[in-house]
UniProtKB/TrEMBL annotation:
Ranges where the Luciferase-like domain occurs: 9-314
Domain of life: Bacteria
Protein name: LLM class flavin-dependent oxidoreductase
Organismal lineage: Bacteria, Bacillati, Bacillota, Bacilli, Bacillales
InterPro entries reported in the protein's UniProt record: Bact_Lucif_Oxidored, Luciferase-like_dom, Luciferase-like_sf
Keyword Oxidoreductase among record annotations: yes
Organism of provenance: Bacillus salipaludis
Gene3D superfamilies: Luciferase-like domain
């Protein structure tokens, strides 16, 4: 049974990054990190949040390479919260296997499964699974087209360029939902926003910094492309995702989060071959009241979410909290504050 709230859906997502705690230097094991992700989802469900997402990376410094497996474990300890990948690297997964995995998750969870599909921030899955990264865009489009057909038909006949043909193939099991909800994850790419609109699926927009108004053209392009392709505007759903940390006061939140946030960007950039450290002055600019970084008091977070809702008219907000080696007890505190002091106000204001 899914959670039912009016107004904006509010949830969480994790990429399962494994980073050292900047205060202690200790790094959590992949096993402990995975258990904490499951526990975070259980707490989010108990606190009445709407959705929980698990990302996909194929690296030793991430704990979650198999989101449907982790989400299936979460399904067993939750009752109402929607369960989504965040994101599935669609170009390097077979669409038939993807559909069957998430249809199974949908049955296990009594109809709570969703998928956010993306091209991926890293490219390690391409050689790992035998794909050419130069085919990234073409693979994504073909796999999405096939997935949407699988979502509509129990039996399918299909021909493509990158996988073997299907001839009256049975695809099982079928999900409990009529169709699995699927979104496309978008960063700053107009091509990705346009692609989501053409396919008529949801757009999950990652806004990780700067003034959110600069992302409005992407939302407008998504809706324009979608309606021009013949999709109903009410079916073109927008989700906004971003980094978040909440404390009793905005100054407390900024002080507490800076070591973890700076640490996160340091190791994330090292993974990309870049040498980068975030100064406190840089951080203060990024965390200012008009920016998209959701760091502050509950009231500050409410104001930032509502400002974005005025800009985008979106249906879902998902916070990423567990970054930079943030210990689980602090993650749990943040989940409780989001659920009890932010979500009720946001839902009330956005349901008017």
């Amino acid at each position: 049974m899914q959670q039912k709230h009016s107004g904006l859906e509010i949830g969480l997502y994790t990429l399962g990054d494994i980073g050292p705690d900047p205060h202690t230097g200790k790094t959590t094991s992949a096993g402990q990190r995975t258990k904490e992700i499951i526990e975070a989802a259980k707490l989010a469900d108990e606190m009445g949040l709407d959705v929980f997402g698990v990302g996909e990376h194929h690296r030793l410094d991430y704990a979650t390479s198999a989101p449907p497996v982790v989400l299936a474990a979460i399904a067993q300890v939750t009752k109402r919260i929607k369960l989504t990948s965040a994101t599935t690297v669609l170009g390097t997964v077979d669409p038939v296997r993807l559909f069957e995995d998430f249809a199974t998750l949908d049955l296990i969870s009594d109809g709570r499964a969703e998928i956010i599909a993306g091209r991926g921030a890293f490219m390690e899955s391409f050689p790992l699974f035998g794909y050419d990264k130069n085919d990234c865009d073409a693979l994504f489009s073909e796999h999405m087209s096939l997935f949407l057909k699988l979502n509509e038909n129990e039996k399918i006949t299909w021909d493509g360029q990158y996988r073997s043909s299907l001839r009256n193939a049975e695809v099982a099991p079928r999900p409990l939902q009529k169709q699995l909800p699927i979104w496309i994850g978008v960063g700053r790419s107009p091509d990705s926003a346009s692609r989501a609109g053409k396919f008529g699926v949801g757009m999950a927009l990652a806004i990780l910094g700067g003034d959110p108004i600069q992302f409005k053209p992407l939302v407008d392009l998504y809706r324009k492309t979608g309606t021009e392709a013949g999709h109903a505007l009410e079916n073109l759903k927008v989700g906004i995702t971003g980094h978040s940390f909440i404390a009793k006061s905005t100054q407390q939140a900024k002080e507490a989060f800076y070591p973890y946030y700076s640490n996160y960007w340091s190791y994330l950039n090292r993974q990309q071959g870049l040498d980068f450290s975030m100064s406190r002055a840089d951080y203060e600019k990024i965390a200012a009241s008009e920016t998209a970084l959701f760091v502050g008091s509950p009231q500050q977070i409410v104001e930032k979410i509502l400002r974005q809702h005025e800009l985008f008219g979106h249906q879902r907000f998902m916070a990423q909290m567990d970054i930079g080696g943030l210990p689980f007890n602090k993650v749990a505190e943040n989940i409780k504050l989001l659920a009890t002091e932010v979500a009720p106000i946001v839902r009330k204001e956005t349901s008017k």
